Amino acid sequence: MEENKEQKTLDLGKIVRKLWANKKRFYKIWIITFVLSCIWILPQPRFYKCEVMLAPEQSGETAGGGLSSLASSFGFNLGSLGGQDAIYPELYPDLFQSPEFIVGLYNVQVTTKDGKLTTTYFDYMKSHQKQNLLTWPFRWTMKKLKSYIEEEDKTPRAEAAGDIDPFRMNRKDYMLMESIIENISCAVDKKTTVVTIKVRDQDPLVCATMTDSIKRHLQDFIIQYRTCKVKEDVVHYQQMCDSAAIEYDKAMKAYSRYCDAHQNVILQSYQSERDKLENELSLKQTSLTAMETQLQATKVKLQEKTPAFTTLKSATVPIKPAGPKRMLFVLGMLILVSTIKSYLLIKDDIK
Fold this sequence. Notes:
- It contains 11 helices and 6 strands.
- It is α+β, with helices and mostly antiparallel strands and 351 residues long.
- Among the domains are: 11-44 and 324-351, no CATH class; 232-303.
- A 4-stranded antiparallel β-sheet has the order 4-5-1-6. The chain has a two-stranded antiparallel sheet with strand order 2-3.
- The two termini are 28 Å apart.
């Protein structure tokens, strides 16, 4: 037995006429939405973005370099397989999640664009951030709720950047660190290993200053990592060289005193003692020469291990704010309420 299927069509003309008949409702909704959207978005503090691009020098180890280049052409990176670095460019973004790395930025001196404020980045983020006044009741309510739910934090809050202990922080200091991490981003191109650092801030001059400071902080961190072992070797051989020089001076003085005191002595015992002192002096001189040679070689190795960074794009004070996009926000809210209202009017026709 065949079933009769009724084909239902959507009458677009009827829907358009129905929406047009309710155009006054749309006018009222648009006006109310426009006013409320402006009230909400206009007090929202604006923010700026700045970015720099770096091309870090790779490790001098060439073993596997050809394989790494071939893999990078297909979008892969072998990381430390092409060299001996434990921290290669793909791990740089993870450094920006490290408390030690973020706390190292707190002492950076920043100045606002209007020149009215010059302080540390820690104090700027702690006490000089603009807030939307309309969100104050919500923030106050959330603060009160947390005070009842969460236990009291007995860890004292830091008053200055130097008081921060990355190992143990006050809850507010930790939340401040989290907000700074959200304002900083780092991305690495797997093919070219170009590092892009972006910073967001409410003041354009502070934004550019921190972008440049973070770039330098990252460079110093990588240089410190790559040269840490060699620097220890330099200090070690410098100490060995100084010790060998002291021993050589002692041997030289002993030999000189003995020769001055026994110039006309021809006894074999005195000559044997002189030869012994002379041999000791020769050994001390050889040891000193070897230490000086090793020290110079280690200094050359330190220079080779120190990486160079090529700045492809420097930090520049942004001219235009990056957000919030006020016109797009208002337009988006108008489209949203129009869509909702239209659906409520024609949902029966659609069914």
